[in-house]
């Protein structure tokens, strides 16, 4: 459920008309709903009630400081995967003890940054990384809580580019080698083993792969405890999918996911961490764009928008579907027409949808890409020297720009000339 609905013929973000935002901020622009973000975060929190838990928002999905601040004030922890994300979480006021540090290639500098600033745990992804962290922590005279991310070799049944839990993927250590790795972790100075970490992929629309992975983690917990390790925390990753189109079957709800967690690992007495990103942010954001031209092609018509692949890369990168709806509500039973919906970037890949049935829209009309809150703005670039897409946060009847659109001068001023030019 989200808070982008038609009222009196106009698409609203909570109590703000999207056309008012477009008039003030221009297009393209991302618009987020506070009520939706909070609602989704609270759903996860409620789903784990009864178990000690921390919901660590996956910062990579939507990393604007305003969003992180909002969620942090709500009590959210954060899952970060780079020094930059760590710095963002801290700048948003997230206490170190609520930050988990994931990612396959943490550098010494990133480790030092997080160890100095404080963190809840590092999720280790390989033995070489574990040895380096040991060295860094030991040299700083600290002991860092760690989990090892295990790769359970489970098929997440999602898009191959966002599946992470198969043995062919680069993530984690093979679960079959976990005992050896934990034995070494326990021997290394500067590390304190506190738990196990797993994350099998993103946009999962079926609970079965989670169930398979969490059962393996439960078994491993018993084995590692028998080996003498203090397994007190389980970080179960993120990945719960969202409905991208109304006609799709509805993915499982956080409540079902919480019940599954309780069923599979609830008996172990562990503190639970989860790292949802998409389900919190995805349907809490839209990308608002304007039709620049309607162009008649041979055998097809093109809607040429002012938003492009540099603003929202998901369709080009994963063939992802986003519902694209007019901001002025079409009359009931209004005729539709098939369009190829494209951006102005000079690549054929800059195509959002092919032969998409749309109500009649014309030049100057506004359209909204639904479900664009997660992995939207964060993956944007300035390709074709299109200034980075701005972001707006709505709360009730108020809205604020939370990242302004750079001017051309600002964009250009970031480059510097070498002294010899
Ligand atoms: N934890 C870890 C270790 C992750 O790698 C990810 C996502 C998450 C949590 C959050 O997963 P979520 O709850 O958002 O599914 N750019 C792609 C998605 C990449 C996901 C990467 N990892 C997309 O646009 O679909």
Automatic annotation (TrEMBL):
Lipid metabolism among keywords: no
GO BP term, pick one: lysine biosynthetic process via diaminopimelate
Protein name stated in the entry: Diaminopimelate decarboxylase
Cell membrane listed as a keyword: no
PANTHER family registered for this protein in UniProt: DIAMINOPIMELATE DECARBOXYLASE (PTHR43727), GROUP IV DECARBOXYLASE (PTHR43727:SF2)
Enzyme Commission number(s) of this protein: 4.1.1.20
Enzyme class per UniProt: lyase
Gene: lysA
């Amino acid at each position: 459920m989200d808070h982008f609905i038609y009222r009196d013929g106009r698409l609203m973000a909570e109590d703000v008309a999207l056309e008012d935002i477009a008039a003030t901020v221009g297009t393209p622009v991302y618009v987020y709903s506070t009520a939706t973000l909070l609602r989704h975060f609270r759903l996860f929190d409620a789903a784990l009630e009864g178990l000690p838990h921390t919901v660590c928002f996956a910062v990579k999905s939507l990393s604007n400081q305003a969003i992180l601040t909002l969620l942090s004030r709500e009590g959210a922890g954060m899952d970060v995967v780079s020094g930059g994300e760590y710095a963002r979480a801290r700048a948003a006021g997230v206490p170190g003890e609520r930050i988990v540090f994931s990612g396959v290639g943490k550098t010494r500098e990133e480790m030092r940054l997080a160890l100095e600033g404080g963190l809840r745990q590092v999720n280790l992804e390989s033995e070489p990384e574990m040895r380096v962290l040991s060295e860094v922590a030991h040299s700083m005279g600290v002991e860092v809580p760690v989990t090892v991310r295990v790769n359970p070799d489970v098929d997440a049944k999602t898009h191959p580019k966002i599946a992470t839990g198969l043995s062919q993927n680069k993530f984690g250590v093979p679960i079959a080698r976990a005992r050896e790795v934990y034995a070494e972790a326990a021997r290394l100075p500067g590390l304190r083993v506190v738990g196990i970490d797993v994350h099998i992929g993103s946009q999962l629309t079926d609970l079965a792969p989670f169930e398979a992975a969490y059962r393996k983690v439960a078994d491993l917990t018993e084995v590692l405890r028998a080996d003498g390790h203090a397994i007190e925390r389980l970080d179960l990753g993120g990945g719960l999918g969202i409905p991208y189109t109304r006609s799709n079957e509805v993915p499982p709800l956080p409540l079902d996911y919480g019940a599954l967690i309780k069923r599979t690992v609830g008996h172990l007495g562990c503190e639970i961490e989860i790292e949802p990103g998409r389900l919190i942010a995805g349907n809490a954001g839209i990308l608002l764009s304007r039709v620049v031209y309607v162009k008649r092609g041979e055998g097809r018509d093109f809607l040429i928008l002012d938003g492009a692949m540099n603003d929202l890369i998901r369709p080009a990168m994963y063939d992802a579907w986003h519902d694209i709806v007019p901001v002025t509500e079409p009359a009931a039973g209004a005729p539709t027409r098939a369009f190829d919906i494209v951006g102005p970037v000079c690549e054929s890949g800059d195509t959002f949808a092919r032969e998409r049935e749309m109500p009649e829209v014309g030049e100057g009309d506004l359209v909204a890409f639904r479900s664009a809150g997660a992995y939207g703005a964060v993956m944007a670039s300035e390709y074709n020297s299109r200034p980075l897409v701005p972001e707006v946060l709505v709360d009730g009847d108020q809205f604020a720009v939370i990242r302004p659109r750079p001017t051309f001068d600002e964009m250009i001023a970031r480059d510097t000339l070498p002294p010899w030019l």
